[in-house]
Amino acid sequence: MHIIHFSDVHIGVENYSKPNPETGLSTRLKDFLDTFDELVDFSINKDVDLVVFSGDAYKSRDPNQTQQREFAKRIMRLSQANIPVFLLSGNHDVPHIFERASSLEIYKTLEIQNVYTADTLGIHNIDTKNGPIQILALPWIRKSNLLAQRINLEGKNHEDINLEIQKTINDSVQNMALKLDPKIPSICSSFTI
To answer: Which domain holds residue 41?
Structure first.
Protein backbone atom coordinates (compact mmCIF):
# COMPACT_ATOMS: atom_id res chain seq x y z
CA MET A 1 0.00 0.00 0.00
CA HIS A 2 1.40 3.41 -0.98
CA ILE A 3 0.55 6.25 1.39
CA ILE A 4 1.55 9.90 1.09
CA HIS A 5 1.72 11.80 4.38
CA PHE A 6 2.03 15.56 4.73
CA SER A 7 1.18 18.29 7.19
CA ASP A 8 1.70 21.93 8.06
CA VAL A 9 0.80 23.52 4.73
CA HIS A 10 0.16 26.80 6.60
CA ILE A 11 -1.48 28.57 3.66
CA GLY A 12 -1.59 32.24 4.55
CA VAL A 13 2.01 32.74 5.65
CA GLU A 14 3.13 35.82 3.77
CA ASN A 15 6.56 36.59 5.27
CA TYR A 16 9.09 37.68 2.65
CA SER A 17 6.31 38.20 0.15
CA LYS A 18 5.05 40.84 -2.22
CA PRO A 19 1.83 41.11 -4.20
CA ASN A 20 1.84 39.50 -7.62
CA PRO A 21 1.06 42.42 -10.00
CA GLU A 22 -1.10 40.20 -12.24
CA THR A 23 -3.24 38.49 -9.59
CA GLY A 24 -2.87 40.70 -6.52
CA LEU A 25 -2.17 37.56 -4.47
CA SER A 26 0.89 37.06 -2.31
CA THR A 27 3.91 35.60 -4.10
CA ARG A 28 4.44 33.49 -0.99
CA LEU A 29 0.95 32.00 -1.41
CA LYS A 30 1.95 30.92 -4.91
CA ASP A 31 5.10 29.28 -3.49
CA PHE A 32 3.04 27.26 -1.01
CA LEU A 33 0.46 26.29 -3.64
CA ASP A 34 3.12 25.27 -6.17
CA THR A 35 4.62 22.90 -3.59
CA PHE A 36 1.17 21.56 -2.74
CA ASP A 37 0.58 21.01 -6.49
CA GLU A 38 3.78 18.95 -6.67
CA LEU A 39 2.46 16.70 -3.90
CA VAL A 40 -0.91 16.31 -5.62
CA ASP A 41 0.69 15.64 -9.03
CA PHE A 42 3.06 13.06 -7.51
CA SER A 43 0.17 11.31 -5.73
CA ILE A 44 -1.90 11.13 -8.91
CA ASN A 45 1.00 10.14 -11.19
CA LYS A 46 2.11 7.38 -8.80
CA ASP A 47 -1.50 6.27 -8.27
CA VAL A 48 -1.08 6.18 -4.49
CA ASP A 49 -3.61 4.39 -2.30
CA LEU A 50 -4.14 7.09 0.31
CA VAL A 51 -3.11 10.65 1.15
CA VAL A 52 -2.98 11.53 4.85
CA PHE A 53 -2.86 15.15 6.00
CA SER A 54 -1.95 15.63 9.67
CA GLY A 55 -3.06 19.16 10.37
CA ASP A 56 -2.48 22.88 9.93
CA ALA A 57 -3.91 23.60 6.49
CA TYR A 58 -3.79 27.32 7.16
CA LYS A 59 -1.70 29.78 9.12
CA SER A 60 -4.83 31.14 10.78
CA ARG A 61 -7.84 29.49 12.37
CA ASP A 62 -9.92 31.85 10.21
CA PRO A 63 -8.53 31.49 6.68
CA ASN A 64 -9.89 33.79 4.01
CA GLN A 65 -12.02 32.50 1.15
CA THR A 66 -9.16 32.54 -1.35
CA GLN A 67 -7.00 30.38 0.90
CA GLN A 68 -9.89 27.97 1.48
CA ARG A 69 -10.62 27.78 -2.24
CA GLU A 70 -7.01 27.01 -3.12
CA PHE A 71 -6.69 24.27 -0.49
CA ALA A 72 -10.03 22.77 -1.62
CA LYS A 73 -8.99 22.74 -5.31
CA ARG A 74 -6.08 20.46 -4.50
CA ILE A 75 -8.11 18.18 -2.23
CA MET A 76 -10.75 17.90 -4.97
CA ARG A 77 -8.12 16.90 -7.55
CA LEU A 78 -7.12 13.99 -5.32
CA SER A 79 -10.73 13.05 -4.68
CA GLN A 80 -11.58 13.13 -8.38
CA ALA A 81 -8.58 10.89 -9.07
CA ASN A 82 -10.22 8.34 -6.74
CA ILE A 83 -7.50 8.74 -4.12
CA PRO A 84 -8.90 8.77 -0.59
CA VAL A 85 -7.77 11.81 1.40
CA PHE A 86 -7.73 11.83 5.21
CA LEU A 87 -7.73 15.29 6.81
CA LEU A 88 -6.77 15.49 10.49
CA SER A 89 -7.36 18.76 12.35
CA GLY A 90 -4.32 20.52 13.77
CA ASN A 91 -4.11 23.39 16.24
CA HIS A 92 -4.31 25.98 13.43
CA ASP A 93 -7.46 24.30 12.09
CA VAL A 94 -9.45 24.29 15.33
CA PRO A 95 -11.02 27.49 16.69
CA HIS A 96 -10.69 28.35 20.37
CA ILE A 97 -14.48 28.61 20.73
CA PHE A 98 -16.14 25.21 21.09
CA GLU A 99 -19.21 25.81 18.87
CA ARG A 100 -17.28 27.32 15.93
CA ALA A 101 -16.54 25.06 12.99
CA SER A 102 -12.99 24.01 12.23
CA SER A 103 -11.49 25.08 8.91
CA LEU A 104 -11.63 21.45 7.67
CA GLU A 105 -15.15 20.68 8.85
CA ILE A 106 -16.69 21.80 5.55
CA TYR A 107 -15.44 18.61 3.90
CA LYS A 108 -17.43 16.46 6.34
CA THR A 109 -20.48 18.69 5.91
CA LEU A 110 -20.38 18.44 2.11
CA GLU A 111 -19.75 14.68 2.23
CA ILE A 112 -17.21 14.87 -0.58
CA GLN A 113 -16.45 11.45 -2.02
CA ASN A 114 -13.04 10.07 -0.98
CA VAL A 115 -12.47 12.80 1.64
CA TYR A 116 -12.49 11.88 5.33
CA THR A 117 -12.00 14.24 8.26
CA ALA A 118 -11.09 13.78 11.90
CA ASP A 119 -11.50 16.37 14.59
CA THR A 120 -11.98 13.95 17.48
CA LEU A 121 -10.12 10.87 18.64
CA GLY A 122 -11.42 7.86 16.77
CA ILE A 123 -10.90 5.03 14.32
CA HIS A 124 -11.63 5.62 10.64
CA ASN A 125 -12.02 2.74 8.21
CA ILE A 126 -11.12 3.68 4.66
CA ASP A 127 -11.36 1.56 1.55
CA THR A 128 -8.45 1.99 -0.85
CA LYS A 129 -7.84 0.37 -4.24
CA ASN A 130 -5.52 -2.12 -2.47
CA GLY A 131 -7.88 -2.95 0.36
CA PRO A 132 -9.07 -1.42 3.63
CA ILE A 133 -6.98 0.49 6.12
CA GLN A 134 -7.73 1.71 9.63
CA ILE A 135 -6.58 5.09 10.85
CA LEU A 136 -6.43 5.77 14.55
CA ALA A 137 -6.83 9.54 14.52
CA LEU A 138 -5.48 11.79 17.24
CA PRO A 139 -6.21 15.35 16.14
CA TRP A 140 -5.42 18.51 18.06
CA ILE A 141 -7.54 18.32 21.20
CA ARG A 142 -8.74 21.46 22.92
CA LYS A 143 -7.78 21.57 26.57
CA SER A 144 -11.34 22.67 27.38
CA ASN A 145 -12.71 19.46 25.78
CA LEU A 146 -10.56 17.34 28.06
CA LEU A 147 -11.44 19.39 31.10
CA ALA A 148 -15.12 18.88 30.25
CA GLN A 149 -14.58 15.13 30.78
CA ARG A 150 -14.67 15.90 34.48
CA ILE A 151 -11.04 15.18 35.18
CA ASN A 152 -10.49 15.89 38.87
CA LEU A 153 -8.20 18.92 38.89
CA GLU A 154 -9.06 20.35 42.26
CA GLY A 155 -5.97 21.63 44.04
CA LYS A 156 -3.61 20.77 41.16
CA ASN A 157 -1.03 23.16 39.74
CA HIS A 158 -0.47 23.82 36.03
CA GLU A 159 2.15 21.06 35.66
CA ASP A 160 -0.07 18.49 37.39
CA ILE A 161 -3.00 19.49 35.17
CA ASN A 162 -0.89 18.96 32.04
CA LEU A 163 0.27 15.55 33.32
CA GLU A 164 -3.34 14.56 34.01
CA ILE A 165 -4.35 15.66 30.49
CA GLN A 166 -1.46 13.66 28.97
CA LYS A 167 -2.50 10.60 30.98
CA THR A 168 -6.11 10.97 29.83
CA ILE A 169 -5.05 11.22 26.18
CA ASN A 170 -2.63 8.30 26.52
CA ASP A 171 -5.29 6.11 28.15
CA SER A 172 -7.81 7.06 25.46
CA VAL A 173 -5.40 6.22 22.62
CA GLN A 174 -4.49 2.88 24.22
CA ASN A 175 -8.18 1.99 24.66
CA MET A 176 -8.90 2.97 21.06
CA ALA A 177 -5.93 0.91 19.80
CA LEU A 178 -7.45 -2.19 21.41
CA LYS A 179 -10.48 -1.70 19.14
CA LEU A 180 -8.44 -1.94 15.93
CA ASP A 181 -9.04 -5.04 13.81
CA PRO A 182 -5.70 -6.91 13.78
CA LYS A 183 -6.51 -8.36 10.34
CA ILE A 184 -6.60 -4.91 8.70
CA PRO A 185 -3.53 -2.65 8.20
CA SER A 186 -3.51 0.26 10.61
CA ILE A 187 -1.76 3.58 11.00
CA CYS A 188 -1.93 6.28 13.62
CA SER A 189 -2.27 9.83 12.40
CA SER A 190 -1.62 12.32 15.15
CA PHE A 191 -1.02 15.99 15.31
CA THR A 192 2.05 17.27 17.08
CA ILE A 193 3.39 20.73 17.54
So the answer is: 3-190
